[in-house]
Write a structure and sequence with these properties.
The complex is a heterodimer of chains A (about 60) and B (about 150). By secondary structure, chain A is mainly alpha-helical. Helices cover about 45% and strands about 0% of the residues of chain A. The mean pLDDT of chain B is about 95. In chain B, strands 1-2-3-4-5 form a five-stranded mixed β-sheet, with helices on both faces. Chain B is of the alpha+beta class and about 150 residues long. Chain B starts with a strand and ends in a 17-residue tail after the last helix. In chain B, about 30% of the residues lie in helices and about 25% in strands. The longest helix of chain B has 15 residues. The chains are: A mainly alpha (about 60), B alpha+beta (about 150). Chains A and B meet through helix 2 of A and helix 4 and helix 5 of B.
């Protein structure tokens, strides 16, 4: 779980929590997809918050 | 959060005419000094009524912020291959191009086309608004370059 936060922080430069909205990460579509690949997370899921990304790896 | 869903032409036209269609044209169309935007709404309605038109919209809290429109057809070169989709136009408001919304719109379109039984889809982008890295990452393969030339009297 901490890995997901660390990867997002590394890739985006933002300090994030589970409540951080994915829309607020400042990513364009290409960066968004690259982040999902980095997180080994399916691109067709709905991820409103960082917590939703973390749930994929629970 | 943006919601993506399949919609009818009448629904898209109601919310995009004079708004998004115009913004889309102003941002991306070429030769705007020679060819004015003049969408044939009746033609689109006919295509919609005959099942040719396939539309996925992007809406934030119900407000239209983008769309992806394709034509569904049995390609005359490949009459036994199954249904194919040819992209007509797509757009997402500039202020909504964050959080992967563009990628999600393409994915939603793909998912919807698969549900309709489409076996192959064609998609293009402007060279001055090149989405090749994005589309490639989504599994699309660049295959053609389109050339245009204005031949009209203006």
């Amino acid at each position: 779980m901490r890995d997901v936060l660390a990867i997002i922080e590394r890739e985006t430069g933002y300090a994030v929590t589970g409540e951080t909205r994915v829309e607020d990460l400042g990513l364009d579509s290409l960066e968004y997809l690259q982040l999902l690949i980095e997180l080994d997370t399916p691109a067709d899921g709905e991820y409103e918050t960082v917590s939703d990304l973390m749930k994929v790896h629970e | 959060m943006i919601a993506f869903r399949e919609e009818s032409w009448s629904s898209l036209a109601k919310d995009a005419t004079g708004g998004l269609f115009r913004k889309h044209w102003e941002e991306l169309a070429l030769d705007r000094d020679k060819i004015e935007l003049s969408m044939d709404m009746e033609k689109y309605k006919q295509l919609s009524d005959s099942g040719v038109l396939h539309i996925v919209t992007a809406r934030r809290d119900g407000r239209l912020v983008g769309y992806f429109v394709t034509f569904l057809m049995i390609h005359p070169h490949y009459k036994d291959a199954g249904l194919m989709a040819l992209t007509d136009f797509y757009y997402l408001l500039p202020e909504e191009r964050r959080g992967g919304a563009g990628a999600k719109l393409v994915i939603a379109m793909e998912t919807s086309l698969k549900e309709r039984g489409v076996v192959k889809a064609y998609l293009s982008c402007k060279l001055h608004e090149d989405h090749t890295p994005l589309f490639t990452l989504l599994g699309w393969k660049p295959t053609d370059i389109t050339f245009t030339k204005h031949l009209g009297p203006k």
